[in-house]
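Marked as duplicate of an earlier ticket. Keeping the data here for the record.
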Amino acid sequence: QAQLVESGGGLVQAGGSLRLSCKGPPRAFMWYNTGWFRQAPGKEREFVAAISRSGPTTYADDSVKGRFTISSDNRKNTVYLQMNNLKPEDTAVYYCAAAQPGNPVRLPGSYDNWGQGTQVTVVS
């Protein structure tokens, strides 16, 4: 399995921005669809955004559309999640994950390879 490592989390004020990074082994994101999920305390893990292995197709949950953008850079073996206009309700541990193409990208069960997560805290 490809080892995924997230980074870029932190503490930010409401309205601020963060960019999360998910680094994988060489060419990993050329073979797998990649998703970002988040999990707040006491809540289930939920879908945030995903990008197809070929890059041009992206998906986002309605709660983040217009604020979060997922992108990939295959030269750097990295998938990014640019988060703008952050809100306190975005506070969670954010995970990136890789899935075989053809599986539903919005379902956590589609992903069999997860990073360790990075904490995002938004204060008002």
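See parent ticket for discussion. The chain has a mean pLDDT of 94.
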